[in-house]
Amino acid sequence: MSTAVNPWLALPDGRPSASLTRQLRAAHERLVTSCGLPADSVVRSVVRDSWRRSLGSGVDPDGQAPPVELLDDDLLAYRAAHPLAPVMPVIRRLLVEDAEADQMIVAVTDAGGRMLWVEGDHRLRSMAAGMNFVEGARWAEEVAGTNAPGTALAVDHAVQIYGSEHYRRPVQPWSCSAAPVHDPFTGTLLGAIDVTGGDHVASPHVLTLVRATVAAVESELRWLHREQAQRAAGRRPAPPVPRPAPLLEVLGRERGRLRRPGGTLELSLRHSELLLLLAEAAVAGEGRSATQLAAECHPGEAAAVTIRAELSRLRRLLGPDLVGSRPYRLRGRIETDLDQVRRLLARGAVGSALERYPGAVLPGSLAPGVMAARERVTALLRQAVLRSRRPELLLRYAQLPEARDDAAVWQACVEWLPAGSPRRTAAAAHLLRLRRTSRPR
């Protein structure tokens, strides 16, 4: 295999070959049958890494099509409020108007990989509907395997996927080119723009076209924001855009991580606990005394002076402009991934909440306040998933450490999955093992 100048290109010379297809399929077969990939494999590193992520996520290479998560009025309302809705005329003008003649489908996703708009060649769209490449379907890499929009979102980079580079075999007759779209002010990932079709879609000029469209879209978003700001200010110059709030990540992590515009900070466990407890208090508009924090931090009795010392170190680390005292409180807003999940659950967006929930809150912490927050969100998520009665959500939830020994969850898997499904058989076997090990000896 020749060395590509640009590793994100599927076909640097623009020409597919039967030999490459055969080699890719052989490599794919080796991977999914647990034989691994040889060091001299023809598979590009970006595709090899994506295949391994897909395998690790439990994506079945021959399984069911990706789930459709948004339908009818829910889909219309969601995409009407999406930040990319105002720039759809730009995407249509640059890509969709010629899609019929170029035999292409143009898709626009949200940051979670849901297809919000799928337009272009009518015949191809009808064919693609057979694999649920439709509006409302979720093509994130962890559920749909390697595909251009899902992988572009996963690695936050423009990428092409040629034919047999797709992880799921039903998608291998197609090729696609996609690039992520970001908010031009905050850098927030908004979604992806994808072009799907035959082998010609994997040629370099198509990826160039997609990237140019993304640049035009981000430029249009910048202009629309300034126009709205000037209109709101009575034509005065737009005020500076506020910096995004720091994000405290505590889900599925042994220690917290604070993401700030200036960089990322890994926290000690004690500082993770204290900052989370202050963020939880701030949600209710409250602060905490040293005595209250001592009770929430230590399972037994603890001197408030110890907590004051830790908070002093935390304030030196983060700055007094972020953590105040008398009482201890947050001076500025801190977003937490825990609160993001709770808000999604409150809106009924169970699938999105599950996406943003990699695991329990600081699972190694024994701090009573942290354990209480952990138990509350775990119970909320479990209840929402069970009430959703959606097998694809339940199966994803069942893979979390907290659900692996939850007999009620696996019983629901058995009840909701169709008869004859291999996943139902596997769920039934797991449930039987759980029941056997829970019997008194």
Short description:
This is GAF domain-containing protein. This protein has 441 residues and is an alpha+beta fold.
Topology (SSEs and partners):
Elements: H1 18-32, H2 45-56, H3 72-80, H4 88-96, H5 99-102, E1 104-110, E2 115-120, H6 122-128, H7 141-144, H8 148-155, E3 159-161, E4 175-182, E5 189-197, H9 204-232, E6 247-249, E7 257-260, E8 263-266, H10 269-283, H11 290-297, H12 304-318, E9 323-324, E10 329-330, E11 335-336, H13 337-346, H14 350-355, H15 368-388, H16 391-398, H17 407-416, H18 422-438
Parallel strand pairs: 6-11
Antiparallel strand pairs: 1-2, 1-5, 3-4, 4-5, 6-7, 7-8, 9-10
Helix pairs in contact: 4-9, 11-12, 13-15, 16-17, 17-18
Question: Would you mind describing this structure in some detail?
Answer:
By secondary structure, this protein is of the alpha+beta class. It has 3 domains: 212 residues, GAF domain (Beta-Lactamase, 2-Layer Sandwich), CATH 3.30.450.40; 90 residues, Arc Repressor Mutant, subunit A, CATH 1.10.10; 102 residues. The protein has 18 helices and 11 strands. It has a 5-stranded antiparallel sheet with strand order 2-1-5-4-3, sandwiched between helices. A 4-stranded mixed sheet has the order 8-7-6-11. A two-stranded antiparallel sheet has the order 9-10. Strand 4 and strand 5 form a beta hairpin. Helix 4 packs antiparallel against helix 9, helix 11 crosses helix 12 and helix 17 packs antiparallel against helix 18. It is globular. The model has no long low-confidence stretch (mean pLDDT 87).
